Amino acid sequence: MKKWKFAITLLITSFCVGLFLVITIKPEPLRDALIFFPLDPNASFDESRSQIEFQAMKDEDEYILDWSVTSVLNQPAYLRQDVSLLFEDGYLKDALSSWRENTDTINMGKDVRSDDSGHYRVVTFHHAELHYPNDVIKSAQKLSFDQLYVIDSPLSPLHAFREPSTEEEKESKRILDYILKQQQDYDWDALFEYYNLPKDEYKRIALTDLGLYEEEPLPGLTKEKTAQFLGGLWEGLYKNYVLGITKHDGTSVSPIGSTVPVILVPTSADHFFVLFRTADGEPIQLLQTLKP
Q1: What is the separation, in whole angstroms, between the first and last Cα of the chain?
Q2: Residue 104: which of 131, 79, 133 has the closest Cα?
Q3: Is 175 left (phi over 0), alpha (psi -120 to 50) or beta?
Q4: 113 contacts 62 by C-beta, under 8 angstroms
């Protein structure tokens, strides 16, 4: 009899605990997805900013960069997401990502340690998901960018600038830009050959140069189609680059150390390739198509 009473008591207790968990634990939005929906003409960003600042010297061989991202939508959204990528000399140094429910604002930041001279570029995708009655879902999106040159030379103290103001800074910028361009052109040519793509049929746009096309449309596209392309591009990059890169053998690796993705825009502008290499040099190709 005591055993039956104990079993019944245990069953009732388990049921109550389970019911409590069902009531009190609220399902969270899907964290491992960034989804593009049709753009909402009534939603826009009042503020969207990416910033990389030279903060301090750690020691003679190391310095600290302050990396910050801020975005404010003109209204609260069901879901706000920001994804920010920091590249150093053409390679991904670090990534920041944040999502929040029922808010208009996201702030995130990080101190990044580094050394030697370098050209740092930040590109951030600011995104909002807005829900309306009858299961209508809309999006809002914005890009922001920043760059910084850090010069570590035996001829002058360690310093940083966005735009050069002296002849020495102009020469330092020229050298760093030249090295990066030579490196990227060589690698992109090799990727074209690897994937057997005709070089004269595609325009190359580095992910870090997308800011040129936020106000002006991509070649062969309207502004509306360009916005659709950008939303789909970041949806794919978030899934297949930021969260981890799937290699040819099926394993997943971190994107840190991978090259800046280059976007290939064909003359027909109905499909796009995205090419890059993993940190260990494996070539990766992503395909994006545009709906008519």
Answers
A1: 72
A2: 79
A3: alpha
A4: yes
Pairwise CA distance, residues 153 & 281, whole Å: 30
* Strands ordered across the beta sheet of 271-277: 202-206, 262-266, 271-277, 283-289
Question: 3-state DSSP call for residue 57?
Answer: strand
For residue 198, the Cα-to-chain-centroid distance in whole angstroms is 28
- Phi then psi for residue 104, to 5 deg, are -110, -10
The reply to whether the predicted model has a pTM over 0.85 is yes
List per-residue pLDDT tens for the chain, 292 residues long.
Answer: 443 444 444 344 443 433 333 333 333 344 567 999 999 999 999 999 999 999 877 666 789 999 999 999 999 999 999 999 999 999 999 999 999 999 999 999 999 999 889 999 999 999 999 999 999 999 999 999 999 999 987 777 788 999 999 999 999 999 999 999 999 999 999 999 999 999 888 999 999 999 888 778 888 888 888 899 999 999 999 999 999 999 999 999 999 999 999 999 988 777 899 999 999 999 999 998 877 6
Contact 269, 220 (CB under 8 A): yes
Mark 24-43 as b/e (b = at least 16 C-beta within 10 Å): eeeeeeeeeebbbbebbeeb
Residue keyed to tokens 């052109």: 185
